Amino acid sequence: MPPRELTSPDHYSIHENTSSRQVEKAASRCFESLQNLESRSTAFTSRDQKALMHDTRCLIRLVYVRLLLNLSSGMRLLHTCDAKRIAGALHHCSGPSRLPMAEESLLHTVNQCVAVLEQPAASGVVLFVRVQVSCWSLESVVSSFECMVFLSKWICHFGARCSPSN
Fold it and tell me: What superkingdom heads the lineage (predicted)?
């Protein structure tokens, strides 16, 4: 039986919620606070503290992505372990929504998602997976997965708008 969070139709109900702007502002404040904490040279030096900071960053990134993208149909299929069904469902999910999100927040979301790619791109995916797999958290894995789906949807959406036929 899959976890309720993955199968609940309300899992991504933030799209129907009229307070999405408030959620966006709260995420922005959390991100700024996190950056302020990380800028202190003496703050968070232990491994556990760094892991907590990383997980917090992943969760904030997830909030930004989920404000723009509804992947509920694809996420409900994760428990099936059927890659073709999951890929098909994710492919048919609509692209980034046009919520009243500030352009600054949209660019911030894109930048955060691109940042997820920097380390594996710099070190090579195989080496990155071998070295990092022991310290991945659930938050990190889900955030990375949804960031990659968001970027692919955003690029396809952007590419469709900029195609010569339009």
Answer: Eukaryota
